[in-house]
Amino acid sequence: MGKVKDFLNRKNIVISGRRYGIDALSAMAQGLFCSLLIGTILRTLGQQIGLPFLTAIGQYAMEVSGPAMAVAIGFALKADPMVLFSLVAVGWAANKEGGAGGPLAVLIIAIVAAEAGKAVSKETKIDILVTPAVTILVGVALAKLIAPPIGAAASAFGQLIMLATELQPFWMGIAVSVLVGIALTLPISSAAICAALSLTGLAGGAAVAGCCAQMVGFAVMSFKENRWGGLVSQGLGTSMLQMGNIVKNPRIWIAPTLASAITGPIATCVFRLQMNGAAINSGMGTCGLCGPIGVWTGWLAPSEEAAANGALAIVPRAMDWTGLALICIVLPAVLSTVFCLIERKLGWIKEGDLKLN
Length: 357
Hints:
Elements: H1 2-10, H2 17-49, H3 52-63, H4 65-76, H5 81-98, H6 102-120, H7 127-167, H8 169-185, H9 190-196, H10 201-221, H11 223-237, H12 243-248, H13 254-270, H14 290-300, H15 304-308, H16 318-346
Helix pairs in contact: 2-3, 2-4, 2-9, 2-14, 4-5, 4-6, 5-6, 5-7, 6-7, 6-9, 7-8, 7-10, 8-9, 8-10, 8-13, 10-11, 10-13, 10-16, 13-16
């Protein structure tokens, strides 16, 4: 047992929830952002302003989302270069075989393939053959074997959430908004979760509401302590920056979470706000304005995931734009400010509790 432990330490193979559930998942979301998400935005812009070359560039970026995710995961796992480059083929196979649940399949398979490749890397005199062969064989074999059922299971679970939201928009609006919003602030990836579940439609709209409530909420709540830098870094970056303060005083999390519990059902019941862009946008909130942009792109040209669920392109009306602005910016800012003021009066939030280092 000691020899196995020494070998794993030497190979930097750390079997832990943090390495796989936080580091790898967060990296996968970045890979998705740098391929599928930015590609969707560029393609939509190209379609709307009549620039075919921009549309083509966006399409190219979208088509390499599997390799991008796998390489990002390998990077997070500190894979050697030969392993990292070999993960391109693994990511492509896992994403293709996984179908609607491709991102989840890529996450699981890329982790196993990367660790297998790391285990044999530089162990033989023919490393240039052994390392890529093991990485690709393990990854592609797993893709053929388990990616289809992983994809089917993820798709079914995502469909269940979306169906439940259609049937019970009020209660599911609260649940989805709160849970996905919390995931966004935690050191895990809400974007990757939404992508893995192909979360679009009304449930995707609730997820957008929850994520925006957390980001905009913390940004405006902490303006007194963090000023404009904090407003931008949290409102357009990530509310995860407050995680250290949340550990010190969990009560600071109450205000934006209550805001998400209110904006979620307003999104689903009042404005019928749907995320029919790329599913990853459902978990992005106001990070780079990706949540609102995803809703907009979904209006103009629904993603493949949304189209498969019956989404159609629409011409947005004044009510749609009003709902988007209220859900993503105005209501989170107002509600979180009010709840924060109440907490400050109660002594639950004290001076400096929201200060970013």
